[in-house]
Give the backbone structure.
Amino acid sequence: MRMTSRKLVELIKEKLSNEQWSFEFDREKDMLRIENKTTDKGVSLSLPGIIAKWENKKEEAIDEVVYYVKEALNVMGKQQELTGKEKSVFPVIRSTSFTKETKEGIELVFADHTAETRIYYALDLGNTYRLIDVKMMEREGWNIEQLKEMAIFNLRSLETKVKADNVAGNIFYFFNANDGYDASRILNESILQSYEEKIEGKMAVAVPHQDVLIIVDVRNETGYDILAQLTMSFFASGTVPITALSFLYEDNRLEPIFILGKNRPK
């Protein structure tokens, strides 16, 4: 069976059957918006990424999305307090095209990162998280520097799971602890610096979607082509895509690289 956006929407609606929730399918953007009718809060799902996951994981991919939506909708509309939950604050990486405000027009707290990525801040709620907005900060009397410091400290305390693969003479390191903050580990300077010390070629870094950080020891020209293909594939299949571009890491800086033609970074 070939999965289409329309068929996927029907499957999700069937599994999420709830009189309190509304569904709106945007065919042009290939997005499904699910909202709680009482609070008018909800989540938007990018259907192509879910279809790509379904190709590999079938029913499990649908179940993952359903679980994510249920958890998210159940916490939305509830006022969340930050005080007493300081250890549950983490940074999250998003694309620069990601919204800067909530649906209600309240500005989200964010910081610049690269030309392709931006840093937001989240309160971890166990099975989901809530992005922190300026009203939450004002209510708690927190400031941005305090929030940044806290979030990075908590990020460094997370367990790291890494898988290494040798592909055509290039070493690929995949960070996948599956805790929602794998891409955020690009903000952990101690990780980047420790890999820079042991890398023999050029160090490239990629965060195609929320649940993976890729560090590559690029030792030959083919490595760039493999990285570009891999990043695009991950970007297309991620539940929360970030960027299909990769970065070179040199002198503690991330510089976007454009891999054009045959394995030549620009």
About this structure: The CA atoms of residues 137 and 146 lie 10 Å apart. The mean pLDDT is 88. The helical segments are 5-15, 47-57, 59-75, 134-140, 144-156, 189-198, 221-237.
